[in-house]
Amino acid sequence: MMKVDFLTLFPEMFEGVLNSSILKKAQEKEAVQFRCVNFREYSTNKHSNVDDYPYGGGAGMVLAPQPIFDAVDDLVSKSENKPRIVLLCPQGERFSQKKAEELANEDHLIFICGHYEGYDERIRQHVVTDEISIGDYVLTGGELGAMVIADSVVRLLPGVLGNTTSKIEDSFSTGLLEHPHYTRPAEFRGHKVPDVLLSGNHAHIEEWRTKQSFKRTLVRRPDLLEDYQLDKKEVKWMQQVKEEMKLEN
């Protein structure tokens, strides 16, 4: 069972997300155990403060090292395995599906969710193993980012998803964006499902889906194809897709 701890000043923010949908089912299946820890409880300040003014002046408040250091030390001391300690930070590595797959192999994750202007640099230097950003924008705190990462990671754990092929075929897992999906009815308001999907020919369906993935990736995220290694069959399909796109334009 994976253990996931969230160090946060606002544990109530996690209640709805962790107790709904796939994350709730993952806990029921004993694939993961979540815990929200308010690191204010570790403050040795008489007013339970966890932040202070930055040395050198400047706007905002900075999270002090003591509560974070002590909270992490406590969690690590109770852990059976060495945890990965993730700092949610705009300066961190951009989160990706590859990173989610990497973290899904861990037994214990600790997410540090900050607020205010930033962290005392000693937290970054001496506590964390990973710094992660979910995008090039700034949030009011790390909680939302931690929830996004946790959701992305936990769905990859064995037995969590009902369909085991879902996580394999997801966008980014294959290196391409996912192909279009359709369901009943076969025609809706004059819009029809592609005939190939109704044919029952699984080889043709697989070819269509792969070509559609190439097409969608070419149009929306061509950067993903820069490092994608095509086999001979895929080279042929890619050429066909490019010709079809020329005709469409």
Question: How would you portray this structure in words?
Answer:
With 249 residues, the chain is α/β, with parallel strands linked by helices. The chain folds into two domains: 2-154, SPOUT methyltransferase, trefoil knot domain (Alpha/beta knot, 3-Layer(aba) Sandwich), CATH 3.40.1280; 174-248, tRNA(m1g37)methyltransferase, domain 2 (Trp Operon Repressor, Chain A, Orthogonal Bundle). It has nine helices and ten strands. β5, α4 and β6 form a beta-alpha-beta unit. α8 crosses α9. The radius of gyration is 23 Å and the shape is elongated.
Number of domains: 2
- Corresponding CATH architecture of the largest domain: 3-Layer(aba) Sandwich
Low-confidence stretches: none
Query: Main sheet: which strands, in order across?
Result: 2-1-6-5-8
Please, what is the average pLDDT? 93
The fraction of residues assigned to DSSP E strands is: 15-25%
Q: State the shape.
A: elongated
Features:
three-stranded mixed beta sheet; 10 strands; 9 helices; alpha/beta; Trp Operon Repressor, Chain A; 249 residues; Alpha/beta knot; single chain
Show the helix and strand layout.
Blueprint: E1 2-8, H1 15-18, H2 21-28, E2 32-38, E3 51-52, E4 62-63, H3 65-77, E5 84-94, H4 97-103, E6 108-112, E7 118-119, H5 121-126, E8 130-133, H6 143-154, H7 166-169, E9 187-188, E10 191-192, H8 202-220, H9 232-248
